[in-house]
Amino acid sequence: MKLPESYFSRILLAYLPFMVCPFDLTRMAAEAAWAVLFLWITVFFFWFTRRLFPERLLRPAFFLWLLAWAQAAWTLAKLPPFWIVSVFFLMPVSFLEAQNKAARVRVFSRLVPRYFWDRFLSGAGFLCFVLAMDLGRVFFCGALGAAVFAQPAGIFLLLTIAAVAWKNQPFKAL
Amino acid sequence: MTTFSMITVFGFLLAIRGQKSALLARHRPDFFGVWREALDRFLTAGILLALYALALAFDATRPLARENGILFFGVFGYVLSRYQGKTDIFFLTAALLAFLVSQHSADLRQGLGEVFVIVAGIGGFQAALLGLRYRLFFSKVPASVRGWPVICLLASFVSLALWAIAARVF
Question: Per-residue pLDDT for A105 more than 80?
């Protein structure tokens, strides 16, 4: 089975804010793990509470939720707020659009585990992607001494390699 | 490094999310639109910084604004962006930009100068990437690298060129 292009798009766009602060590997992994954990909390929270918000207030509530947590993370751990952009790109933000109404889904429907499984995979895939990119950067920059990989230009080159690998996956769509 | 990274990252995000590829296939990239957006971004971030400076000027509001900087820039940024009918990514970039500049600029004038440099850089990056991407529509790009691979490669070249220019200028 071939993994869809949209999945890669979301992960790539969510990774970009991590290029702004060149942390060490441990710090970057911790920040990515926090972003993923927060993504799962947000998905869970809005899945159950979406119907409680009036349509007009859903979007402000979502951004206020992001900002409040970004403020808390900054106050407690001095975590720069770029991770909220990652969460924004990983979230299925189409639910904020007014024309997308919440459908009634039975609790034991097969849609529920599939929905949460998709979001779980997005988060886990993103975490692996961030770690792989940073390991690649450390390898090229540290071991091979290619200084360009300490710059966004080098990281975009790594992203190019990742995109080529993703686009030409060995397993073809059935 | 952070300033240059912000230019590259935000420029890339706005170039990808600000334009629809289907439109690019039919029309020339809207360079005027890119620079108008850049001006809007500068004005929005500038107003946010001015409001923050105003809040810091009064004893009653100073601790509140200083301790809740992200909320301050986020809420006012959201209101300003909605008023202008801008996208979510515009709001996020303007608010983050204003917040980060406020963290290491001594006064409003220096902050506005930093915002101007970053926003001009973002506009330059966007214009270069969109122009190269448009020219690529007329080239025979192999199917195996079409889409994200070639966009990332272009972004890498643009970033490298901007880095060289920035090293000479600053």
Answer: no
pLDDT, tens digit, for every residue of B104-113? 887 888 889 9
Burial of B145 (0-12, 13-18, 19+ CB in 10 A): middle
Interface subset of A 37-66, CB within 8 angstroms of B: 60, 63-64, 66
Q: Is the pLDDT of residue A72 over 80?
A: yes
H-assigned helices in chain A:
5-15, 25-49, 55-77, 83-90, 111-138, 152-167
**Averaged pLDDT, A119-131:** 85
Binning pLDDT at 50, 70 and 90, where does residue B22 land? very low
Which of chain A's residues have a Cβ under 8 Å away from the Cβ of B5? 19-22, 152
Query: Does residue B11 contact residue B120 with C-beta atoms inside 8 Å?
Result: no
Q: Which residues of A65-82 are buried (b: 16+ CB within 10 A; e: fewer)?
A: bbbebbbebbeeeebbbb
Is B2 in contact with A21 (Cβ distance < 8 A)? yes
What number is the ipTM of this complex? 0.85
Chain B residues touching A19 at Cβ < 8 A:
5, 8-9
Hey, CA dihedral for A70, A76, A82, A87, is it positive or negative? negative
Measured in residues, chain A has a length of 174
